[in-house]
Amino acid sequence: MSLLARVEKSLVTHVEAASGRGAPPRLLAAMQHAVFSGGARIRPQLCLAVSMACGDNAPELSDAAGVALELMHCASLVHDDMPAFDNADLRRGRPTVHKAYGEPLALLTGDALIVMAYQVLTNASKAHPHRLGPLMHNMSQGVGLPSGIVAGQAWECETKADLALYQRAKTGALFVAATCAGALACGSDPTPWAALGANLGEAYQVADDIRDVILSAELLGKPAGQDELHHRPSVANDLGLNGAIHHFQRLIDQAADSVPPCTCKDMLQQLVRLEAQRLIPAASYEACLKQAPKATLATQH
Amino acid sequence: MSLLARVEKSLVTHVEAASGRGAPPRLLAAMQHAVFSGGARIRPQLCLAVSMACGDNAPELSDAAGVALELMHCASLVHDDMPAFDNADLRRGRPTVHKAYGEPLALLTGDALIVMAYQVLTNASKAHPHRLGPLMHNMSQGVGLPSGIVAGQAWECETKADLALYQRAKTGALFVAATCAGALACGSDPTPWAALGANLGEAYQVADDIRDVILSAELLGKPAGQDELHHRPSVANDLGLNGAIHHFQRLIDQAADSVPPCTCKDMLQQLVRLEAQRLIPAASYEACLKQAPKATLATQH
């Protein structure tokens, strides 16, 4: 089974089990809308890839750890799309949760997904109770205070913010949590895996900035040009498109280099490079670079 | 030390420890605003009272379990006060979080408090790792799907809802989680303690309905008459004020009767009756009943 298929299968199983019986049907539908909408599942796949490199000795716990992180990611997208933040109508080509179900249910959907993420971890850890605490702590670090994705989003509400700190928290934290969770689920030391998550997270953030500039709304599945519209920091604006693409490639190289010694090192490095191509297909930025002179893009603030 | 003093002390300690260093300062301030605003701390006190009845053999874990439930309660208040739900300007006599810090930070404050609740449990459970799973599961049941407080709030977004189910989820679930957490933190069976939480939770919901009718906004610390305004189900409207007060007293009796055999049974029953008096001081409803004929109140829908 491919990593993606394994992730999708465990998402279905875990969400169903954690939903229980008798939940409000519209809340359930809104949560399903948020979770099953064609996401790339990059965080849980990363978690599983690291687990495989660490021996995958508790596959159900690794699955749950990946699912939990994906639910956290989905929760953050639902809340970030709301009018208080991006006020986005579309996500992955479909109406956002607040557009489809209204703001009250969107607010509750995010809350319920955060709780469900912890519930999924709890449910799966009965055979390995000593791994639950470290996995919970790791996930909370990726999401909460002081520098998880919620803190990252909150830096947008400050008058002064350190750009690197903001970006590490907003995107990087959950990638670091994903690689570390893969190790923790196997009872392994997560420390050697943090750098891979950090590099990939930063690369992903840069790719997102680039995609926001070069892709149309149709290809993005959400409105394009949002960083400029919301005056958000963007590497594509700071370095210009050409500079941003070189920066992205450097980060992918760093990510591949940071894979620690393990039997699957080659496979993992290959996965990193394939993911880079999925994020920014060479064809699309080459076409874009041909159309637009560097100078114009470099000053596009 | 009184139960309340013990709760306040552990809230300060745990929130500080779980906040870490370097979090966005306005998010931190908004979270402090949400948590330290003169709440009655009834859920953590209930948790601690049950822990004491069960031997209080892991006081730090009991403290953390109570703190975690209070953080969940605070998170739900922040989100419920937002324009998507109650659109309330005041809470406990002070501006609500979205009024003081804006909607984006209010949204993130609720999210961060939910994550922090789990973090507090994780941090405190290192000496008793086998108690973490059951405590986590218990808290998630009180908050998430299928019938925790988030599900309770979501029933307001359905066209059809079972009133008893709605009220049990909206308020009762976290009270049940509080009594059960007190037992679980001591490694005891939570089952005998669930009824106490359920009865108190229902009594608390009825008291809230009564207070919404009889107290002024100044005494409530938040806008009065909100149930009628938002067409929310209200026992005070269904049974009339007199009927609601009798129902409340019956629930308090049931709560006292449901305290299971333990060395502190008398003390716990006394606590239940004192809490009832705090919720609805006899003087205030007697004055109100004198002013308003029953018939008028009974038809006040």
Structural commentary:
- Two copies of one chain form a homodimer.
- By secondary structure, chain A is mostly helical.
- Chain A has two domains: 1-189, Farnesyl Diphosphate Synthase (Orthogonal Bundle); 191-301.
- Chain A has 16 helices and two strands.
- Chain A has a two-stranded antiparallel sheet with strand order 1-2.
- In chain A, helix 1 crosses helix 4, helix 3 crosses helix 9 (163-185) and helix 7 runs antiparallel to helix 9.
- At the A-B interface, helix 2, helix 6, helix 7 and helix 8 of A face helix 2, helix 6, helix 7 and helix 8 of B.
Write the layout of secondary structure elements.
The structure is a homodimer of 301-residue chains.
Chain A: H1 3-19, H2 25-35, H3 42-53, H4 59-81, E1 90-91, E2 94-95, H5 97-101, H6 103-124, H7 129-143, H8 149-154, H9 163-185, H10 194-214, H11 217-220, H12 226-229, H13 235-257, H14 265-279, H15 282-291, H16 294-298
Antiparallel strand pairs in A: 1-2
